[in-house]
Structure prediction request, 332 residues.
Amino acid sequence: MHGVVTVNRRGRKTSPDKEVSHTPVLLHEVVSLLAPRPGGRYIDGTVGLGGHAVALLTAAGEGASLLAIDADPDALAVARQRLASFGERVTLVQANFATLQEVASSTGYQQVSGVLLDLGVSSLQFGPRGRGFTFSWDQPLDMRMDPSLPVSAREIVNDWEEQDLAGVIYQYGEERRSRAIARSIVRARPLMTTAELARAVEQAVGGAGSRIHPATRTFQALRIAVNRELDSLTSALRQAHDLLDVPGGRLAVISYHSLEDRIVKGFFRQAARDCLCPPELPVCRCGHRATVRLVTHGAIQPSPTELAANPRARSARLRVAERLAENASGPS
Ligand SMILES: C[S@@+](CC[C@H](N)C(=O)[O-])C[C@H]1O[C@@H](n2cnc3c(N)ncnc32)[C@H](O)[C@@H]1O
Prediction:
């Protein structure tokens, strides 16, 4: 079975105590809704440790090919090893999916049967040798998926004005105690590690009494800011849409928090509507025509069985849309 990956950061098999394992989220649902077929061409914009990619290529069968992208070179090294048996059917590229069109055209993937974006962070990045994405391990504060990005979490935490810091924590962490947290962070400077940051947050908001760790939202906010995750997603959705076969190409997106899911839902809803005029206008003036139909109505969430096996999947939401024929009408 391809369900669990067991590799180290360089893609080599490791002894059990040094393992990094990643269980692909909503795997069965992704495969059945993207419905890969022989000869199909696919893009995995977040190949991570390759779990979904292996399953898609295996289900597709003969002649299917895959463009596998990830911003993180370490993840890509793992995926390269994991996907080696598919030979030339796989093209791997280290890139941000915000540059999807460019990567697709430079690799000959201008028109594809399906695109998958499984957003967020892999267990490699959340693990003991990650780059400071989590307070579960005491690591240097970094949070860059692509280590060549100019700004890391350390600069944001140590150099930004308190007000800007509070703004980011509020906006991207949906954290209502953002001002107190920013004040505590500024007081505790310099902060160099995840444990120091977690402690500064706890000093502001207390350490107990919540379902989640008090620093969860702050870490999420910094990660989104460092990697400009929401801008990249907004831009990638349009590009992925434009790369899909007309008709029939499918885009599947798994999001892990409400900010991402809101962007995906908004994009899909708008693309699936025939008119975007305000309801008070008696006749359509915008001329917008639906370019997709929604394959999923409402987001698909992991089953209780999946959650029991993989509690990390709890916040996952899968949405899928399919390109319509030109001039086809969708429900408005
Ligand atoms: C949840 S993991 C994907 C796991 C993968 N589906 C699997 O089965 O192993 C998300 C991956 O997306 C990558 N990623 C996140 N944002 C990205 C972006 N804007 N561009 C490219 N890769 C990105 C991360 O580096 C991470 O490896």
